[in-house]
Each structure stands twice: as structure tokens, then as C-alpha cells.
Design goal:
3 helices, alpha+beta, four-stranded mixed beta sheet, single chain, about 15% helix, four-stranded antiparallel beta sheet
Length: about 230
């Protein structure tokens, strides 16, 4: 299952959520769930004293789509989204573990990643195989998203609400692209090529998400690692 954390280094409430995300990744607290985490740094805190080096307008827009879906008045940080289907304050450990346990009861589509390798100096190729199950029956389709994330990152924050703090992050998304569509019960099996610009090839996490619509339910997710 997928846990997305919308966070910012400019937000004083976010560091506890960053720590919790790392714990979820490391300790996998729900035995029935294989938790895959992603940290998506938004940019709407960037003009309040500290520009987050990992922030992107793309992640602010993605969070905005979730806010619309969950009928929230506005986006906020820190926010965790579990399988695209539940949202809560990102530092709420009990709440997120409960959400993970509930999400683990839903069968997911198998997503298998294999043979990641570089193509030239700025591209990465990975074989993606998705085998739809009943979750995509009835003519439904799912977007196939591929994220490249740094395994870990660290910043010494000099200004803003977290001035003087050293912040550590896991699975920091550097690129997120739609790379295909899964239709009905048709198998998706192909090599996918994406840019590695801004990503850390020394400790790269590759995640593929099958999701209903722009910010809908996550139907399946898979991940692998690449080390250059």
C-alpha cells in the first residue's frame, strides 16, 4: 500500500511527520501490510523564510486534487494520504496505523518492477508489469504513475520556522510522471524510460502506482531500488 506525506521544510509542524514516515518505512508496523512511502514536498511554504530544496509545484497541485476529492477547504501540512482513500494529519501515529490496517484488508493489483538500468547519462529504464484483477473489472482504467525518489535526504535549515534544525527525510520524490494506462483486465508489460534529472542515483527508490483518476483510490503499488 502507498503512504504519501505532503510536507515542507518551511513548516514547523512537519518534522514529526517526517520522522513518522521514516519509522513506517523502516519498521512496517502492520504485519498484514507492505507499506511503501513517498515524501512529496509542496512549494507553498517557500516564500516564508526558507525555500525547501525538494519542493515542487507539481506536488502542491497533486495535494490540491486530493483536497478537492476529500472535500477539504484547503491543503495543509503535514498531511498523510493512505492509498489515495484516507487522509489525516501526518504526525497522527495511531490514526495512520489504524488507516493502514483498514487499507490492508483491500486486495491490490500486483505491480512488479524489474531490471532497472541506466540509458545514457540522464535516463533510467525499468520493466513494469501490472496484472489487473477484479479491481479493474467493468471497463475501469487506472493511471500508471512512476515516481523516482531519493532514498534519504538531509538539510541544515538556516532560515524560516525550522531555522537551526537538521531535517532528515526518506523517499523524497524528485519526479512523478504518468507512464501509461491499465485498461480493464489487460496486462501492462513494457520497459518504461524516465528522466533521472535531480534524482540521487546512489540510493534511488523507484515506485509505480496504479491509481483511479488524478487523485483517486490507489489500486496497486510496487517498488524497487537502484544503486549506481
Amino acid at each position: 500500500m502507498l503512504i504519501e506525506l505532503f510536507t515542507s521544510e518551511g513548516c514547523s509542524s512537519c518534522p514529526p511527520a517526517d520522522v513518522l514516515l521514516g519509522q513506517l518505512d523502516r519498521f512496517q508496523p502492520v504485519p498484514t501490510a507492505d507499506v511503501i512511502v513517498l515524501s512529496e514536498h509542496v512549494d507553498y511554504w517557500d516564500d516564508i523564510g526558507w525555500k525547501d530544496p525538494y519542493s515542487s509545484r507539481q506536488f502542491s497541485l497533486r495535494q490540491g486534487d486530493y483536497a478537492h476529492r476529500f472535500r477539504l477547504d484547503d491543503s495543509y501540512t503535514p498531511q498523510m494520504v493512505v492509498d489515495g482513500d484516507t487522509q489525516l494529519i501526518g504526525s497522527d501515529e495511531r490514526g495512520v496505523i489504524r488507516a493502514i490496517a483498514n487499507a490492508a484488508k483491500i486486495t491490490k493489483i500486483p505491480v512488479i518492477l524489474s531490471a532497472p538500468h541506466l540509458q545514457g547519462t540522464k535516463s533510467l529504464v525499468v520493466h513494469v508489469e501490472v496484472q489487473p484483477t477484479v479491481a479493474l473489472a467493468g471497463g475501469k482504467s487506472g493511471q500508471l504513475l512512476l515516481a523516482l525518489a531519493d532514498g534519504s535526504d538531509q538539510s541544515n535549515v538556516r532560515r524560516g520556522e525550522n531555522a537551526g534544525r537538521t531535517l532528515k527525510h526518506v523517499a523524497v520524490v524528485r519526479t512523478l510522471n504518468q507512464v501509461g494506462t491499465v485498461e480493464g483486465n489487460n496486462v501492462f508489460s513494457k520497459d518504461v524510460t524516465v528522466s533521472t534529472e535531480n534524482a540521487n542515483l546512489q540510493n534511488l527508490k523507484i515506485v509505480v502506482i496504479v491509481q483511479e483518476g488524478t487523485a483517486g483510490r490507489v489500486l496497486g503499488v510496487g517498488s524497487t531500488r537502484f544503486s549506481n
